[in-house]
Each structure stands twice: as C-alpha cells, then as structure tokens.
Amino acid sequence: MDALNPTRRALLGSALLAPIATAAVAIPVAAPAVDRSEWDRAKAAQDAAKRAYEAATKPAADATAAYQANPVPVPEKAIKREFWSYAHQDYVLRGLDLDDHEQRIRTDGFGTPESRAKRIADVQAIRDHRAADDALRDRTGYDRLHELSDEACDAWTDAAWEAILTPAPDLSAILWKLEWLFGSDKNNNSSYSIEAIRTVEDDLRRLNGEAA
C-alpha cells in the first residue's frame, strides 16, 4: 500500500530533483561568432554624426535667440485693415504674393483713388517688414545656421538607420537599437519601422543560435 501512495516528503523530494535532472541534460547552444567590424564601423559613424549634429544645434539656438531678442515690429494696423480676411498673420508676413495682391487692388475697381492708395500703402508696409526681417535673419545667421543644423540632423538620422540595419554582434548593440527605435531618454527618438523590428528579431535569433 505504501508503495502505491508515496508520502508528501517523497513527492517533494522528486519535485526538487526534477530541475536538477533537467539541467543536467540541457545542452547550451553557443551563439555563432559575428564579425563585429561592420557594426563597429556603422556605430562609430552614427556616433560621429550625432556629435556633429549636437555641435550644429548650439549656433542655431544662439541665432534664434539673437533673432528673437529684437524682432522687427509687425505692422499690425496694416494687417487688420488690408489683410483681415487671412486667418494666419505669418502667411501675410512671409508667404502672401504681395505683387499679385497689389495688382488686384489697382484693377478691382473698388473704392476711390485715395482709398486704393491707402490700401497699397498697407501692402508696402508688409514689404518693408519683410525686407527688415530678411536683413535681421542675415545678420544673425538665422536661416543659414538652421539649414546647417537640419542637414546635420538628416546625416545623423541616416547614419543611425544604417547602424540599425547592420547585424548586431551582441546584446549591447541590440539594446542600443531598441533604445533608438522606441524613444529612450538617451536618444529621444520615437522611430518605428517594420524593417527595423525585423532586423532586431534577426539579431536575437542569430545570437540565440537560430537561423535568421
């Protein structure tokens, strides 16, 4: 009867021995060796591009501060009188075709010659503002330095993307990829791509000894 009904102590002993037996027969799978030279090159290029971008952001930020410190006064009265129908003031100041607008004033037949002259004067006020604003941008380097910063950002993004698509030689490289893709504090990025995720999956399979 006792042989058919083992005690709780015997069952506990069997349970404790089971993991040991399983571990004894487990055969570790060694991850295949990966040539890390390609990864090292791609990661170094990414690091250099990131440093170049960070170096370009400060002059652009300084130019922004200088540009905003003494802005050109906006001709608000002219905007309210002549351009009241436009929802966005910035469009009037930077984007509107002033020559076309003035031509329509001259040919639409509305108002007296005096009223049309006042309207044209309001158009000229916007032109004067643009000229002064363009001069301020030139003095501060606002447009030029922001363009250089944007170009450096594009170069960094391209280099990072190349690194992401490069086979990862170890878990540290995979961690860097995941931090980049999912917006870690280190990179402050929120990129997402099926191609990139599949690349990381292939990395994990390869390091786990599976065929990618």
UniProtKB/TrEMBL annotation:
It comes from the Bacteria. This is Uncharacterized protein. PROSITE patterns: TAT (PS51318). It comes from Sphingomonas jatrophae. Residues 1-23 form the signal peptide. The keyword Signal applies. InterPro entries: TAT_signal (IPR006311). Keywords: Signal.
